[in-house]
Amino acid sequence: MRLLRVYERYFARQVYGVFIFILFAVLSLFVFFDLLNELESVNGKYTSLIAFFHVVLQAPTRVYEVLPIAVLISAIYVFSQLASQSEYTIFRVAGLNTRQALFSLFKLAVPLALITFIFGEFIGPRAEQFAQKVKLEAIGATVSSDFRSGVWVKDRDKDPSGSGEITRFVNVAGLRPDQTITGITVYEFDAEYRLRVIRVVKEGRYQGAQSWLLSDVNETRFSELGKPPGAPGDGLAPEFRAEQVRFPSITMHSELTPQILSVLLVTPERMSTLDLFRYIRHLRDNKQDTQRYEIAFWKKVVYPLTLFVMMALALPFAYLHARAGAVGVKVFGGIMLGLSFHLSNTLFSHVGLLHTWPPILSALVPGTLYLLFALTALRWVDRH
């Protein structure tokens, strides 16, 4: 029992010490490339200093992303050194078996998994949102979107006339740092999905209690013309009347909130699980596809557990004798292994999205495959 306490402290001191250095090195590399990429957007308003500040604010998200890779490289380096100096052999002679070593490494991974969770849930998403707001304020850009026309959001509400439920498709061209939305176009349909109002709005401010104050509003209202009794009608081409009305300001009740719109500033993979859960619920309430966000949600849940997989992948390197290859070659192999895990994690997300796999399956498959590979490798080196 005393031996276990001694070697666990020794492993922890070695792994954590190298981990800090590796994390700083890998993070610096990613930040450097991010800065080079961001400098392409520098102009009169968006200066180099603001670009650097923007990249620094994104660093916590990078910490979250590279933590498993840094843990894997650190553990491989430490165990390769132990193997080359026959220290791990001494531990094995003293009674340390593979199962005990693996369990001890899992205990070392617990604090690192907790750090990953904190960066992924609290520090990273908030820093990412603030970074995007800093950039928006500097260049006055619109909300980032895959569509040139802006961001499209579906909204549902009760019909004020009490005749059912109305559906809105809202297009937002811009979102300011103070959460004011600009360039708004609202297409409003009745309960039978007939277009009844097109509303073009210059600006909208959230008033609380699911209420928006819309300023400088141009409305186009559509109403179906009635037919005289006995007159033939064409159901496929009904006759409508359009009426245009202008208002200085109106109040619109909506389920949309600034919190939901601010989600659009950050990609799903960089959101917190709570924000993802809220947005998924909003999409479900509006009968929209949620698979991309569900995959991101489950990846966020599973990601801290990948630290245990990384530790399991590193342990077989402790069983390789020095003559099997230099430490540098093993570390390079660890880097390639870590990058392959990162790439496969991204690949399965896209494949799962294309083939509509269950979101939890898309999130679990990469880690499960690498864990099986690690256990197979441990079984092989333990026997040989």
UniProtKB/TrEMBL annotation:
Primary site of residence: membrane
Protein location: Cell membrane
Alphabetical list of InterPro entries matching this protein: LptG (IPR030923), LptG/LptF_permease (IPR005495)
Keywords recorded for this protein, A-Z: Cell membrane, Membrane, Transmembrane, Transmembrane helix
Transmembrane segments annotated in the record for this chain: 12-33, 63-80, 101-120, 301-320, 327-348, 360-381
Pfam families listed in its UniProt record: LptF_LptG (PF03739)
UniProt cross-references to NCBIfam families, sorted A to Z: LptG_lptG
UniProt protein name: Lipopolysaccharide export system permease protein LptG
Organism the protein comes from: Cupriavidus yeoncheonensis
Gene that this polypeptide is encoded by: lptG
